[in-house]
Each structure stands twice: as C-alpha cells, then as structure tokens.
C-alpha cells in the first residue's frame, strides 16, 4: 500500500526509529522496516476508511439495508440529553468487561455523588451459562444494597450492558451477539432485562429496572450533564464503539413514536466495521493471526485493530516474528513471549510512557518475559508498540471523522471513556492531531467522561423519570 502522503502528525510511530539513538548505528534491517510500515496509514488511507465508515452508517440507518448491514446503528431509545435539572437517587449496574460494578448514584442540581463497588467476573462466569452470569450479578446487587443499608429499597435502576443489543424500548433489549471474550450460553437472542429480572427473582432481590444502555450512551449522557455541546460518545477500552445523537428523520429503522424531541442516540456498534472484508487491505498478517486466537473469529475486525483487548497481542506476534528471524533478542524467543495474550496492552502504555533514553521500562518488561535484550532491541520493540498504538488512534479518528461529517456541526465535544484512552500516554494527543488533519474545518474537543458508563445509566434513568413526571 502506498503511503506517500503519510499524516504529518506527531509521533507517527511507523517512522519512529529514533535516528538519534546512538545504539542503533546501522539502519534497521529490511524486515523490521517492513513490519513497521505494514502498520502505517496515510492520510488518503484514512479518508478512504472514513468514507467506508460513512457508507456503512447509511446502510445501518436505512431500513431496506439494515438486515445485511455490518455497522448496525441501533437506536438506543434515549431521546434527550440531560439538562442538568435531573435529581434523585438511582442504582446502576455496569457490565462490559471482566469487571462488573454496582453503583449508587445521587443527582442534585448538576452535581453527581457516587458510591460504587467493583466485582471481578471470572473467566468461568464469562464463558459459563447465562444463568450463572445473571445470578452472580443479582448476588452482587444484593450484597451492595445490604452494605449500603438499602436492602429492601427499590430505587430505579439503569443497567449499562456494553454489548450489541437490539432495543425495542428503553428497558427491552435483545443481545445480538457477545463480544470481548464473553460467550455465556443462552443469552444471545434473549431480552437481557428479562434475564436480569428473573435472576433477581430467584435471588429475592427487589429490582425496578427502568433503562438498559450501552456504555457509549452512558458516556455521552454523563458528559452532557455538564457540557452542552457533547454529541458523540466514544469508548476506547477493552473494546471500542461510538454513539451520537441523530435526527429521527434519518433513522429509517426507528419504530418508536414521532413526538418531540425528534432525535435519538444511535449506538453504532462500530467495532464490527470491516467484518465484510472492507478493511482487509489494511489488516496485517498479525491482525489475522491474532483474530484466529479469539473466541469471535472474523468478527469485530475494526475493534480488534483499535482496542485494549487486542493491541498487546498484535505487538507480541510481531515481536515473535522478528525474534524468530534473528532480528530481536539474539534470535531467542522465550516461552512467555510465545504464549498468546501474555504481552498485555498495558505494556504498550508503560513502554511508550517511559521518557528515559535507556528504555528502562521496556527492558524490565522484556526481562520479566524471560528475554535477553540489547539496546537496539529495546528501540525496535518500542517502535513496534508506537506503530501499533498510532495506527489504532488513526483508525479511531477515521471513524470519528465519518460521524462528525454526518452530524454536520462546526463545533462539538466528544465524550470519551475507557482505559486505553485514559492511560496510554499518546493516544489522546495523537487523536487530537489526526482530527485536526482529517477534519480541519470542525473544532472538535475530546472530553474525558470519567466513570461515564455507570453514571450515565443513572442519568438515563433520571431523564426518563423527568420526562414522565
Ligand atoms: C464492544 C461492544 C459494544 C461496546 C464496546 C465498548 O464493541 O460490542 O457494545 O460499546 O465494546 O465497551
């Protein structure tokens, strides 16, 4: 792929062999350069990807093409952003990764107070039966209520459930397919609100569930509570996805009423972009190999090039190739490095965040993985990390550019949450730079929506209460 018009952006990882590094006195071997180049995306590549995303959005919104669309564009049934006047006490549940949270959220005059507790979801529960999964959620809710001295209290509850759901109403949602390593049986095709209600009944827990929301929707809602021009919600964490406020007249699949407000938040489920092969030219051998190791092979291909669950594994596979061909680690690849998923995405964060000239963090991570390193190995490993994370930031921006052009405003704020965005040292500045280059005519602000997914579910519940009162 020609990359002659590479973005001029800061930290363009794929060109980031530090020429000033004394230790790397010779030019990197052709294979190293080739691998770094394979992660490179030019401005015209991104423009093409952005156009493809836009076409996929239109297909998802159109009732005639939605059935075969890859990016499903699910209406969330959330019609209004908060106006800051919402108040009251709410419970929220947040399930979307290996941690599950229960929250008590108190809203008062634009102020939010929260108490929450995190429960670990084991691998067995993620991949066991749906009944076990929902029973464990009900148990956690009961425990949390008791600890808060609210055992019998029946506060309205918002459920953040961060998987692709087809919603029929605010509190009716069928799971279409699991993502992010979940495979719990007998949940796909079922109404998850109903499954939660049944589990709570089995466990004698009172429950008044008023809304089910995706984490992107929660993130947008929670930011909009204090920021009036937030129109997009974005998650860059274990998975990736975006939502935005759309005019009802553009949502061909809309089945709800046509009353004011004539708009609805669309949960794009953009992680599935590329599942029809349209991104194949941009995927590397490492993307394909990593996909083969996942529980949802050939699915969520855009997500797999961007999000935290996968970036470490892509880097690991590239390092194994370079090690095996003698370009790294004196040709000796350790058992740990040969082990799938052993190179975590947080290693990219630590390695890229280390400002020292000796790459000490990188050395320590590789030593812990049983590898013997030279200074030039450290430079190469760091460059692979930068290449993979830079590509991820560019791809996310290509998707955002499509959404921004669909919204058509000159100025807007994107509410963002997720560990990758929060912890990675250059993800945010890279995105800001690439946004400037890809959508120069729009002033775009990225705003961290801390704790957005949990807080947002309570806000959806609160807006529903405000509108019905
Ligand atoms: C996955 C889920 C999606 C969620 C995203 C971020 O893509 O399918 O619903 O929003 O992860 O958590």
Helical coverage, percent range: 40-55%
The largest sheet has its strands arranged as 1-11-10-9-12-13
End-to-end CA span: 58 Å
Q: Which radius of gyration do the C-alpha atoms yield?
A: 23 Å
Q: In CATH terms, what is the fold-level topology of the largest domain?
A: Hexokinase, domain 1
Strand content: 15-25%
Largest sheet: 6 strands, mixed
State the secondary-structure class: alpha/beta
CATH class of the largest domain: Alpha Beta
The count of helical stretches stands at: 16
User: What is the number of E strands?
Assistant: 13
- Which architecture name of the largest domain does CATH use? 3-Layer(aba) Sandwich
Please mark out the parts with pLDDT under 50 across 5 or more consecutive residues, or reply none. Answer: 10-25
Mean pLDDT: 92
H/E element sequence:
HHEEEEHHEEEHEHEEEHHHHHHHEHHEH
What is the number of domains?
2
- Note the overall shape: globular
What does this structure look like?
With 469 residues, the protein is α/β, with parallel strands linked by helices. It has two domains: 1-76 and 226-449, Hexokinase, domain 1 (3-Layer(aba) Sandwich), CATH 3.40.367; 77-213, Nucleotidyltransferase, domain 5, CATH 3.30.420.40. Helices cover 40% and strands 18% of the residues. It contains 16 helices and 13 strands. Helix 7 packs across helix 9. The model is unreliable at 10-25 (pLDDT under 50). Bound molecules: alpha-D-glucopyranose.
């Amino acid at each position: 792929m020609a990359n002659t018009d590479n973005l001029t952006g800061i930290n363009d990882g794929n060109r980031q062999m530090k020429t000033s590094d004394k230790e790397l006195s010779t030019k990197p071997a052709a294979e190293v350069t080739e691998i770094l180049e394979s992660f490179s995306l030019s401005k015209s590549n991104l423009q093409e990807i952005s156009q493809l995303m836009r076409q996929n959005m239109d297909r998802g919104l159109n009732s005639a093409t939605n059935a075969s669309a890859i990016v499903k564009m699910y209406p969330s049934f959330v019609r209004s952003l908060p106006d800051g006047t919402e108040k009251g006490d709410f419970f929220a549940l947040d399930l979307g990764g290996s941690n599950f949270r229960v929250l008590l959220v108190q809203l008062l005059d634009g102020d939010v107070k929260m108490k929450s507790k995190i429960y670990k979801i084991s691998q067995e529960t993620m991949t066991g039966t749906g009944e076990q999964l929902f029973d464990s959620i009900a148990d956690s809710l009961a425990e949390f209520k008791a600890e808060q001295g609210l055992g019998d209290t029946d506060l309205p509850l918002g459920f953040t459930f961060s998987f692709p759901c087809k919603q029929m109403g605010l509190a009716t949602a069928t799971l279409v397919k699991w993502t992010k390593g979940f495979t719990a049986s007998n949940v796909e095709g079922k109404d998850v609100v109903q499954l939660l209600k049944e589990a709570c009944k089995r466990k004698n827990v009172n429950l008044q569930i008023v809304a089910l929301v995706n984490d992107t929707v929660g993130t947008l809602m929670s930011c909009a509570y204090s920021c009036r021009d937030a129109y997009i919600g974005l998650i860059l964490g274990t998975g990736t996805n975006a939502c935005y406020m759309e005019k009802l007249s553009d949502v061909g699949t809309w089945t709800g009423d046509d009353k004011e407000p004539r708009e609805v938040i669309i949960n794009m489920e953009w992680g599935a972009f590329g599942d029809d092969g349209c991104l194949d030219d941009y995927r590397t051998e490492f993307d394909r190999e990593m996909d083969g190791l996942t529980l949802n092979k050939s699915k969520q291909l855009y997500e797999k090039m961007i999000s935290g669950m996968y970036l470490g594994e892509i880097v690991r596979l590239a390092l194994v190739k370079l090690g095996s061909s003698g370009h790294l680690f004196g040709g000796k690849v350790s058992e740990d490095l040969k082990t799938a998923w052993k190179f975590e995405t947080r290693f990219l964060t630590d390695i890229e965040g280390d400002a020292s000239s000796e790459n000490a963090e990188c050395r320590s991570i590789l030593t812990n993985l049983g590898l013997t390193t030279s200074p030039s190995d450290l430079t190469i490993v760091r460059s692979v990390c930068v290449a993979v994370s830079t590509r991820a930031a560019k791809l996310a921006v290509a998707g955002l550019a499509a959404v921004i052009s669909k919204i058509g405003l000159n100025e807007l704020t994107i509410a963002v949450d997720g560990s990758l965005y929060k912890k990675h040292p250059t993800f945010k500045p890279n995105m800001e730079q690439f946004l400037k280059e890809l959508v120069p005519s729009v002033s775009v602000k990225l705003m961290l929506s801390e704790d957005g997914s949990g807080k947002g579910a309570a806000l959806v519940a609160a807006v529903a209460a405000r509108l019905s009162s």
